[in-house]
Amino acid sequence: MSLPPSPSPTPTSTTPPRTKSSNKPHPSSLGPNSPLQPSTSPRPTTLPVLPTSPRHVSGNATSPATPPPERSKTRARDLLRRHYGLNVTPPPPSGRPMDPMDLDSPAFDAKAYYDQLITTASLTTLLKKENELLTGNVLPEMRQLDGERQSLVYNHHHELIDATDTISAMRSRAESLDSDLELLKAAFSEISRLSAEVAIESSATSN
What angle do CA 192, 198, 201 make, to 5 degrees? Predict the structure, then answer.
């Protein structure tokens, strides 16, 4: 009894199965303007808006100018008058007593005040008085007056120089006029002598 032949094995293929390729392009090959490039829209940021009040600027608004004090003008005018030897208007009455020992009095006598202070005050009182004068209003007023005096000289030094030149020119001309005056004096003497002789002769002829 014969056995049926065994079926031959079917050959198996060793080729790996093909994977299904996708038609999607690689992201790196897409341009920035490609429609397939995923668009990332920035998140909108909102800033808080602060309320601002409108400023009303007036066209006529100007900073008030501080007028110069009338007292300083009067004082400067008096200093100029005193410097040039003109009449100085008397200061307005301050209402203070006419005490010669009061530093702020118009009748203050510096020599009498100094003599009384030296003869009657002790050393401690003198040192205290010196400290009061240095730290009080006396020293600033002295410095202010000295500054005003210097400013007067500085602002008018051209006039002072012109006045000096004018005086020198007048002096030189006056010295040159002395000889002319002597000649004029001699001429008047001769005229007087001649007029006297004429008067004598006329009186003699009339007799």
Answer: 145
Residue at token pair 């001309």: 173
Contacts of 94 (CB under 8 A, 6+ apart): 104, 106
Which is nearest to 156 in space by CA: 73, 76, 75, 74?
A: 76
CB-based contacts of 107, cutoff 8 Å, min separation 6: 98, 99, 100
The overall average pLDDT reported for the chain is 70
Distance CA 147, CA 82 (A): 16
Q: Give the distance from CA 120 to its chain's centroid.
A: 47
Residues 76 and 148 sit within 8 Å (Cβ to Cβ): yes
- Give the pLDDT confidence of 153-187 residue by residue, as tens digits: 888 888 888 989 999 998 888 888 888 888 999 99
d(C-alpha 190, C-alpha 195), whole Å: 8
Q: pLDDT of 21-46, one tens digit each?
A: 445 555 444 455 544 444 455 554 55
pTM of the predicted model as reported, rounded to 2 decimal places: 0.26
Contact between residue 129 and residue 123 where contact means Cβ atoms under 8 Å apart: no
Q: Which residue has the tokens 């030149």?
A: 165
Distances 205 to 193, 200, 202 between C-alpha atoms, Å = 18, 9, 5
Q: Which residues neighbour 76 within 8 Å (Cβ) at sequence distance 6 or greater?
A: 148
Contact 79, 152 (CB under 8 A): yes
> Which DSSP category does 161 fall into?
H
CB 106 within 8 A of CB 98: yes
